[in-house]
Specification:
Number of domains: 2
InterPro entries: ClpP/crotonase-like_dom_sf (IPR029045)
Strand content: 15-25%
Helix content: 25-40%
Structural class: alpha/beta
Order of helices and strands: HHHHEEHEHEHEEEEHHEE
CATH architecture of the largest domain: Alpha-Beta Complex
Number of strands: 10
Strand order of the largest sheet: 1-2-3-4-6-9
CATH topology of the largest domain: 2-enoyl-CoA Hydratase, Chain A, domain 1
Oligomer: single chain
Largest sheet: 6 strands, mixed
Mean pLDDT: 89
Length: 244
């Protein structure tokens, strides 16, 4: 649906060619149930995509579709790129780029709400130093973090700010790669990696593993960490089915 709405027809054509079995009287009950649930999920996703703004569609395409299910790296630029803040009970859901002013905007969103105990993240990344500031805002307030979408690049650094850092069953992942400026990787010996490592240790995570993982992946790629590898590294404190 997003591919169609955003003009990425060629990128999603192979998905449209997939066919569900027709529901007929002789279809076995289990297959009929799975098929009907798939159709129901599609309708729900279609309604959500149609109701979303253009900016929201671009965000979901970039973070959740690009590079998945055979979809090529075909990210779209959000114009202007902004961060979206939504309150859902005790959750502050934050989606969008980690750009200049992100930490101040996060602090403002938290100041305006009472009873928030968890920041739910989803982002394609952004500015490293801004991510460290945001992580410290979260830690200073004693809040937890979790994922509502994929959390890539600088976003995992914000995630580390949570006192409790929870990952739940699903496809959302923490993604790591080299620090770069306009797509050009920063040298491994640059002080930014020392700053990140010290921050990770401050937050109770394994800074050496984090830097090694980041430096091993070029800026145009993403290392999607598997949940079972994060339990003993302090990257997460709770992972459904893996650690608690």
């Amino acid at each position: 649906m997003l591919g169609r709405l955003l003009g990425k027809v060629g990128e999603i054509r192979h998905l449209e060619e997939m066919e569900l079995p027709p529901i007929t009287e002789d279809l076995d009950p289990h297959t009929a149930l799975v098929t009907s649930m798939s159709l129901s999920n599609w309708v729900g996703a279609a309604r959500s995509a149609l109701a979303a703004s253009e900016e929201e569609r671009i965000y979901f395409w970039n973070v959740n579709c690009v590079g998945k299910e055979g979809i090529p790296e075909a990210r779209l630029a959000a114009n202007p790129p902004t961060t979206m803040f939504e309150i859902h009970g005790s959750l502050l859901v934050v989606r969008g780029p980690v750009e200049k002013g992100f930490a101040i905007a996060l602090e403002g969103a938290l100041d305006n709400q009472i009873g928030v105990n968890t920041v739910v993240l989803g982002s394609g990344g952004g500015n490293v130093m801004e991510a460290l500031k945001a992580g410290r805002v979260i830690r200073a307030r004693g809040l937890g973090t979790s994922l509502g979408d994929n959390c890539y690049s600088a976003c995992p650094l914000v995630f580390l700010g949570g006192v409790d850092r929870s990952l739940f069953a699903g496809s959302n992942r923490l993604g790591f790669h080299q620090v770069s400026v306009r797509g050009v990787p920063i040298p491994r010996e640059h002080e930014i990696y020392q700053i990140i490592s010290a921050y990770a240790a401050e937050m109770g995570a394994d800074g050496a593993w984090l830097i090694k993982t980041m430096q091993a992946t070029p800026p145009d790629k993403m290392h999607n960490a598997e949940p079972d590898s994060l339990c003993g590294l302090g990257i997460a404190t709770f992972i459904q089915y893996w650690c608690n």
